[in-house]
């Protein structure tokens, strides 16, 4: 019975580590994608679009860190 508890705790830790890795990878990919897209012009619309992208990246990071 003790070995089952240790196995479950180890699996839970592995899942948490994997979730954190995926969250970091998603954030890195989002930041890289932003660097690949050239800016066309600086206007109020662009700043709204930038805010939208930042919000989406933040939301995706939070969702990916939730338990599997």
Task: Explain how this protein is built.
- This protein is mostly helical and 68 residues long.
- The chain is 82% helix and 0% strand.
- The chain contains 2 helices and no strands.
Detail the topology: elements first, then pairings.
Layout: H1 2-36, H2 44-64
Helix pairs in contact: 1-2
List keywords for this structure.
mainly alpha, single chain, 68 residues
Quick overview:
The chain contains two helices and no strands.
Strand content: under 5%
Gap between N and C termini: 25 Å
Report mean pLDDT, rounded to a whole number: 76
Number of helical elements: 2
Specify the overall morphology.
elongated
Query: What's the number of extended β-strand segments?
Result: 0
Helical content stands at over 70%
As residue ranges, the low-confidence spans are: none
